[in-house]
Amino acid sequence: MSMVTLSRRSHRIQPFHVMALLARARELEAAGQDIVHMEIGEPDFPTAAPVTEAGRAALAAGETGYLPAGGLPELREAIARHYADHYQAPVDPQRIVITPGASGALVVALAMLADPGQNVLLPDPGYPCNRNFVELVDARPRAVRVTADTDYQLTAGLARAAADPRTAAIMVGSPGNPTGTLAGAADLAGLAAFAEERGVGLIVDEIYHGLHYGDPPAQGVVHAPGSIIINSFSKYFGMTGWRLGWMVMPAEWVPVAEKLMQNLFISASTPAQHAALACFGDEARAIFESRRAAFRQRRDFLLPALRELGFHIPGHPDGAFYLYADVSGLTDDSAELAEALLDRAGVAATPGLDFEQTAPERHMRFAYTTAMERLEAGVERIAQLLRAGG
Amino acid sequence: MSMVTLSRRSHRIQPFHVMALLARARELEAAGQDIVHMEIGEPDFPTAAPVTEAGRAALAAGETGYLPAGGLPELREAIARHYADHYQAPVDPQRIVITPGASGALVVALAMLADPGQNVLLPDPGYPCNRNFVELVDARPRAVRVTADTDYQLTAGLARAAADPRTAAIMVGSPGNPTGTLAGAADLAGLAAFAEERGVGLIVDEIYHGLHYGDPPAQGVVHAPGSIIINSFSKYFGMTGWRLGWMVMPAEWVPVAEKLMQNLFISASTPAQHAALACFGDEARAIFESRRAAFRQRRDFLLPALRELGFHIPGHPDGAFYLYADVSGLTDDSAELAEALLDRAGVAATPGLDFEQTAPERHMRFAYTTAMERLEAGVERIAQLLRAGG
Ligand SMILES: Cc1ncc(COP(=O)(O)O)c(C=O)c1O
Ligand SMILES: Cc1ncc(COP(=O)(O)O)c(C=O)c1O
Questions:
Q1: ipTM of the complex
Q2: Closest to A144 measured CA to CA, from A126, A118, A165, A169
Q3: CA B146 to chain centre
């Protein structure tokens, strides 16, 4: 046993509860049982061929050295054009910093904004890693309860009620994980105005942009131009394992982000940056859009099917690939239900524990990151289990 | 102008001084001048063909999804075998965690070990990012002067004199950047014993292991088994831009490192992890060893050549690809000399400013990360400049 005392932070950062469930799911599969995976926060499509091909070409061309900390200039320009082409939002490429995933961007953003002893407002439920980016820099995550009343989005009103003089930043995500709900333009602008009024940082996580099944989400670069906008090649662009993301921020902060990138990461992956250039071609776009159509079809099936079974899914889960269900009509312990679903029905879904502090036992996340037939099978199995009496 | 106050940390973290010099070098090159680059901390060889090929194959096979936070099991095993095969050091693969570069490993290690208000001992001169990994978690970097007397390595005696009850960790590197010098087995073991006695963490950065030109360096896994050992595929294995490294630590800490990896990074690059498997094949090994021979030949040329010109390079720079020269016999301002070398001789080298606090104006780092003919040209140009009277 080591006599070294680990940091207090090490104890505050919790492993994900879902890990035990995942281990159990793998065990069952190893024992030959068929599991429908509705717990996975990753598209079930591999990286699109044009992108993979561009990655292979970059490797063949020897693009394997470090890059400038801010990113490959062509990629920063391609992202800027993407905002102009698809969102009518002109963005100076110099305001874009390429990062190792949205994850790396969130490390940089929190390091830029929050000091020890300050607090950071987070929607609850929300993305489970967010509180731990805050813990990394020894600020305090402050969970702000959001409900279906605001489509699970933080608003200026909620932020105002929760903020205090030690609030350093506010983190929001739209479309959100675990709820799949979107922030409206007015709400985002209101939040941006509140953040500006108080002089606190606003971090807008847009990693699920592109994956919307109704109106497109409000754009941070338009409605919250003074914020740090986080994005990624992981989800819409299907490059999870490549570890590539970006951030957009006020020009004056870019040197700060670049020096942090340089010190903490040197640069983001070079093959990934070259491959990502292909994300903006027509061929790749067509693939992404057909995948979006597949997600939409799944959402259109799963949402009414789960509601039919007694899962209460309020609001408008019109983006990402998640549904967040209130299961209190079915159980008083979502973790127990998740276990029963896995063990007795062969369906893996994530209980609320990792996503929220307010009422984890009442909630469960279903991801539609598996094929339609599998979702149909999953729903059928859930129905059987519930008919058998939970 | 944003009214948001950035973190105090943002101000404490300094950009590298060498950036201005690099920008100037690029300007000169754009204007058609030939520059000999002796400032670059990256092998001048592209990734070896078997590794690139493995990366291409992984992409073709669709290996593009997230991996477990601790890394690809086969890669952890391959690294463990590497310790057994080349260093006669058995290491349990379960003690190995795969990271986004040594950089990512250093973020995780500091997050594990140091709390705000504590301090971390660092050799001065040393790797410039180290102090900023410490700043990230709001601990205080405490520079400990090391000299040629200990081959620029921190020893138990030096650590004992510098440590206080608020010391959380000690960071060392061997072979070191910027000095290229190695820690001996007895010194490393002594430091490990001191760290254990005090219950402070020891971080041993072995990123330049494999690049030694005399006796191999002492191995952390052998002589400091209770430490966090940092390594990378960047240097000996020639994979800088892929962003892949690893850490070895006491088994009981692995769950902590994994939860940090998972929260902060999700996982390290998937194509990179698959490609890295090829680093342990015979074909790749032969390439790495021939590159090591090339580095050795360059070192054997450059060290006496610079000494001949009045650069005082004490100690035994027997590893990495750096020489750290005391230039006080030639100038009283190393930054000025670096500028003159660049502007008037077309040679880029790094002044001491980024590496040390003790006597930056007396020191300069030369990297032999360029071909022999270029080094010869560089030395000839330096000689001319010095003959012309600095
Ligand atoms: C809301 C949200 N933000 C950020 C991330 C991090 O993703 P990445 O680092 O792959 O870009 C995720 C991943 O699931 C997420 O759901
Ligand atoms: C001493 C030392 N440690 C760590 C690193 C980080 O390297 P990487 O993140 O590429 O593994 C470097 C890079 O130059 C280094 O010189």
A1: 0.97
A2: A126
A3: 17
Identify whether the C-beta of residue A309 lies closer than 8 Å to the C-beta of residue A72.
no
Tens-place pLDDT, residues B312-350: 999 999 999 999 999 999 999 999 999 999 999 999 999
β-strands B96-99, A201-205: how paired? unpaired
- How far, in Å, from the CA of B102 to the mean position of ligand 2? 6
Mean pLDDT of A107-129: 98
Chain B CB contacts of A2 below 8 Å: 226, 250, 252-253
**What's the one-letter identity of residue B300?**
D
Which residues of chain B have a CB within 8 Å of the CB of A39? none
pLDDT band at B390 (very low <50, low <70, confident <90, very high): low
For residue A97, how far is the Cα from the chain centroid? 18
| Ligand 2 geometric centre to CA of B129 (Å) | 8
Q: Quick one: which of A50, A390, A44 has its CA closest to B59? A: A50
Number of residues assigned to chain A: 390
Taking only the tens place, the pLDDT of each residue in A135-147 is: 999 999 999 999 9
Integer-rounded Cα Rg, in Å, for chain A is 21
Mean pLDDT, to the nearest integer, of A376-389?
Answer: 95
Q: Tokens at residue A161, please?
A: 């009620």
Domain chopping of chain B, boundaries:
8-46+284-387, 49-281
* Domain covering B8-46+284-387: architecture: Alpha-Beta Complex (3.90)
pLDDT band at A390 (very low <50, low <70, confident <90, very high): low
Out of B16, B112, B226, the one facing A262 most closely (by C-beta) is B16
CATH entry 3.40.640.10 includes domain B49-281: yes
Q: CB B47 to CB A59 under 8 A?
A: yes
**What is the pLDDT of chain B when averaged over all its residues?**
96
What does chain B come to in residues? Answer: 390
Q: How far is B311 from chain A (nearest CA, A)?
A: 29
